[in-house]
Specification:
Elements (H helix, E strand, L loop, with lengths): L2 H10 L5 H12 L8 H28 L15 H20 L5 H20 L7 H19 L6 H20 L5 H20 L1
Amino acid sequence: MHQTLAKVISYIFHPALIPTYVFSIIFFFAPSLISYKPEQKLMLLTMIFLLTFVLPSMSIYIYYKLNMISSLAITERKERVVPFLTISLFYLIMCHFFYTQPHIFPLMAWVMLGITLVVGLITVLTFFFKVSVHSAGVSGGIGVLLGLQYLYPNENFLYPILFFVFLTGLVASARLALNAHSYQELIAGSVIGISLTFITLYL
């Protein structure tokens, strides 16, 4: 894969964008599960986008400007700890909001919990070894959709699941082309992403 294409894929399917993609699929592909009005869905997606992508991205940029990290991609494992802890905090805030607001469907809270657990576990593991966050993100999408298909067999998540399976392979190829991760780091990310999100919904 060409390096430019690999970078584009890595940017478009950045792990911090996956929650927005996943909730968009739930809202518009299976509207019967979460019966909000279109404007309510848009408001919630905007909030998810801000707390899971915009604010974490801003915090990483600030760390970069403060010379706490050597690149915005945070390629060095030891430099990932503080940014990942910050990102985990934003995800916990989002998760807490979903759990405490009475107008939020419980299903949304469970999906957000699974995603937050993935982020939290990768943050802990970062103290010891490097895990592909890109791989964990897209694989987490598979886990969420598989969990929803298990819980709601009358819904049809086949095409979104197949899309995320394809996406997992595409993103893994891009990360390998950029020499950003080894096969082991990609596999570790995939296992964490799929298992934690699926188990959270399954239980």
